[in-house]
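Q: Here's a chain of 255 amino acids. Please give me its 3D structure as C-alpha cells.
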Amino acid sequence: MEEGWLRLKCLIACIDYELEEAITNIAKKYDICVLHARPSGSDVFGKVTQFNPDLVIMDLYLKKENALQVFKKIKKANINPETIIVSNEASSTVLLQAFNEGISDYILYSSGIKRIDNSIRRIICSDKKEVKLNSEIFIKIICNYKNTFISENRIVAVEKQTNRTNLIILSNGNSIITSTSIEGILSQGSYILQSPHRSYIININFIDLITPDPHIKGNYILENQTYNLRIPLTKKRYSGFIRNINTNFRMEGFV
C-alpha cells in the first residue's frame, strides 16, 4: 500500500521553481505525499477540489487570482485544508487580511526555508492532522493514457473487460475504463478493496447481501442493489475473503 495515500497530502503551487523544489524536499522529508499545481488560481482550486489535500502551500500572487481569493473559494466549497501562503508582500494590510481569513501561516520569502520547514512540522504535529492521517487512500490508475487518482472510498467495484482494460464503477453512478490491472489497483488499496474472483474487485462497504450461487456449488454471489451488481465469490477465494474482512472489519451476516 505504499503507493496509496494513507499519509498527509500536500498541494504546492509556487511561481519560483527553486522554492517549489525546496518545499517539495521538506515535504518528502516528513513522508508527505506531494501534489503540484500550476501557479494559477484555477488550477490550484481544481486540484484542491479533486484531491482534498490536508495542506496547501501557495504563492500569494498566482495567475489571474491571488491566493486569498482562491482560499475564499476553497472555504466556500466546504474544503478546509491547512493553508500556508508564501510571499514577498510585507504589507500589514495583506497580513491582517490573510489571518482574518483563517490562513494557517503567512511566510515572507526573506524568512527563509527553515521558517517554512517549522510551519509544516507544526501542522503535522497538530491534533487535527493526526485525525486526518488515516482518512483517505487514493488509487493511481491510467485512464486515456494519463495518470488519474481516485479515492478508494468512491470505488464500488472493478470488473475486467478485456485482457488490457478494466471497468471501475464509482459511487456517483459513473464508470471509467482503465488499463491499470486488477492486481495494480488492489496493491494500492486498504482491506476494504477485496478480490472475490480474479476478474473482480469489490468494496466491502458496498456489499448488501451474500448468497449461495444457485448454479455453482460452493460459490457465492455478492450483491449490491443500488448499483445492480452481482459479483461472484469463488469457493477457492471464500475462506481468504472472509478471513481478510473479519481481521479488519466487522460485517453482520458474514460467517
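Q: Can you summarize the key feature?
A: The chain has eight helices and 15 strands.
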